[in-house]
Design goal:
418 residues, mainly alpha, 15 helices, 78% helix
Amino acid sequence: MTPAASAASAALREPSERVGRGWTASLSLANGAIWVGWYGPLQILLAVQAEDLAPAGTSKETVLAWVTGVGAVVSLAANPLFGALSDRTTSRWGRRTPWIVAGASGGALSLLFLSAADSVWWLAAGWCLVQLTLNAAFAAVTAAVPDRVPRLQRGSVGGWLGAAQLLGVVVGTGLATAVGGTVGGYAACAVFTLAGVLPYVVRHRDLRLSAADRPPWSPRDFLAGFRLSPRRHPDLAWAWLTRFLLNVSNSLVLLYLLYFLRDGLHRPDPDEGVLILTAVNGATMLATVVVGGAWSDRTARRKPFVMWSGALMAVATAMLALWQTWPGAIVAAAVLGIGFGVFTSVDFALMTDVLPTAADRGKDLGIINVANSLPQVAAPALAAPIVTHLGGYRTLYLTAAVIGLAGAGLVTRIKGVD
């Protein structure tokens, strides 16, 4: 067997050799850098621009909702598309690395383009470009895990990736705030995003796919591959539905948190309250995201961790409905962070365990990642009528708890994983 054929076979084999700390750290940094590129704009910069660019008679909230909504639609399509394209890439630099480099570079340029927006249309176009390019990099980074990490190490690696995402949100928000000015904030996020992927792409060689192993091109077959068939791949379908329902539940909790503190708990400073609850939630999540993943690796089990972390998240959500006080909200935020931290790492490992084929890892993970993005669209459609007409915040949080429990219970339907 030639070296090229050996490398090609390795790209489609189930990995067995454990990855080192350097590989995990580099990939986690790349993952966190992509989230800096997303959340610097989402947390601070887009809101500032929406207020500056809103036409007369149009509220800044409407402009921001429209811009982020259009971007979310682009994200839903881009992640599985670029994952599928990376599955078919036969570059000398590997399947994933070219897309990480192209996506991060395009994302940095798109952030600079967005910084110069002087109209709502320019703002929307720039944010769509950011979503398109950074999703190319994110799809490739995510697919690198089942490519290189053996099954019983994926929980701990998923934990470090989850921690990097959380820190990426914090760093992106900090850069957007600390540098000063919209242009400077975007430039700082762009530089960090591009620089953050370099250690991984420079230090770690990707696995190559030979042209002989690439499936023949057919537009019809390529498009048909994006359909998730519950009959052919029931474990993947149940895993997708579990993640979707738990993310819907979490999105319902976070969506109207500011309004809940102001109108439900009558906090004198609801903005500060959101910051405190976010810090508490982030601290407990950071404390459990790596530990939970490593623990599931040691026990060689996934489903109990996903089930009980989902149940714990539902308990925290029910607290907001039944214990509507400021101390109750703090306790709920802490418990929710504990549950979501374990869920983030172990559910990621579970998803990689149920992927049907090595040839479609990037595409299938992209479809799974839709379960992260779609709840951001579904949650507002559910929450608005509940809060307005069907009982207010108590009903909203009880509904979220029921949805979360349903998601936690459905993990038992997955048969191919312990």
